[in-house]
Design brief:
single chain, about 260 residues, mainly alpha, 14 helices, about 0% strand, rod-shaped
Length: about 260
C-alpha cells in the first residue's frame, strides 16, 4: 500500500527475485491473523512511496512500460532512487536493455539534461549519461552546484568537463586558413597574404568566444563577409572550400561524453 493509500497487488516471489535486500527487508511477509479478521486475505505491506512512484517501481519490476501513465521526471527519479537504494534492485537490473525505465527517463534528456545526466552519473548509467550529455553543450559548468556535482560523482563530472574542453579546443584547431593557390598575374603572394591576414582576424573572434555549443550559423556569419572582400576568383573558391570544410569538420566533432 502506498502512502496515499492506493493498494497494489504483486507477487512476493517476483519482488524477491529482483531485490537484493528482500525488498527493504519487508519480505517474506508473515501471516497476520488480525489482517485476516479484517477481511484482508492477502498480506499487506506499507511502503513509503506515493502511488505514482510505486506504480513506476512495480512496472519496472514486472518489465512493463509505465509511459502510458505519463510519469513526470521527478516521479521517475524518485522511482529510480526507491528501486535501487530502498528496494535493492541493482541499477544494472533496473536499467537492463530493453528497459522501460531507461526509455521513460531518456525522453526527458533534452528537456532536463542536467537532471538526467546527474541521475545517470550517480548510478553509473553509461548510455543514459551519453544521451543526456548531447544536450549539455550550452551549460556553464560553473553554475553546477556543489550538491549536484557531488551527486553526479567525480568520474562523470570529469567526463562532462572534458567534453566541454575537447569541443572548444577542437573548434580552435579547425580554424586553419584556406590553402593558397598558384600565383597569377593579378593575385600573387602579397594579395594572398592579405587574405590570410583577414582570415586570422575573423577567426580570432571565434577563438576568443569558442564554446562547446558554438553553432555552425555563428561560424558562417563570422567568415562569410570575407567573401565579399575578394575579387580574385581563385581566392574566393579557396575560401569557400575552407569554410565548407570547417563547417563539415565541426559538425563531425564528438557531441557526447
Amino acid at each position: 500500500m502506498s502512502t496515499d493509500f492506493v493498494v497494489f497487488y504483486a507477487h512476493s516471489a517476483k519482488l524477491l527475485a529482483m531485490s537484493s535486500n528482500a525488498f527493504c527487508g519487508l519480505l517474506p511477509v508473515a501471516y497476520d491473523p488480525a489482517q485476516h479478521e479484517l477481511g484482508l486475505v492477502l498480506p499487506v505491506i506499507f511502503l513509503m512511496d506515493d502511488s505514482s512512484v510505486l506504480n513506476v517501481v512495480l512496472h519496472v519490476i514486472y518489465g512493463m512500460n509505465p509511459a502510458r501513465f505519463q510519469p513526470t521526471f521527478d516521479t521517475l527519479r524518485s522511482a529510480t532512487t526507491s528501486l535501487i537504494d530502498t528496494y535493492g534492485v541493482p541499477a544494472k537490473v533496473a536499467f537492463a536493455s530493453p528497459s522501460p525505465l531507461f526509455g521513460a527517463i531518456d525522453v526527458y534528456a533534452h528537456l532536463r539534461p542536467l537532471q538526467v545526466y546527474a541521475l545517470a552519473g550517480h548510478y553509473s548509467l553509461e548510455q543514459l549519461a551519453i544521451n543526456a550529455s548531447r544536450y549539455l553543450h550550452s551549460i556553464s559548468l560553473g553554475t553546477i552546484s556543489d550538491i549536484d556535482s557531488e551527486f553526479i560523482g567525480g568520474l562523470f563530472m570529469k567526463r562532462l568537463m572534458f567534453m566541454h574542453l575537447g569541443r572548444t579546443h577542437r573548434l580552435r584547431s579547425l580554424s586553419i586558413p584556406p590553402d593558397a593557390h598558384p600565383h597569377t598575374d593579378t593575385c600573387g603572394k602579397a594579395e594572398q597574404k592579405s587574405v590570410h591576414r583577414a582570415w586570422v582576424l575573423a577567426t580570432a573572434y571565434n577563438h576568443l568566444n569558442a564554446k562547446p555549443d558554438t553553432s555552425s550559423t555563428t561560424i558562417q556569419a563570422s567568415l562569410a563577409p570575407l567573401l565579399t572582400q575578394l575579387w580574385c576568383p581563385d581566392c574566393r573558391r579557396a575560401l569557400q572550400t575552407r569554410i565548407a570544410t570547417l563547417l563539415t569538420d565541426w559538425a563531425a566533432v564528438k557531441k557526447t561524453i
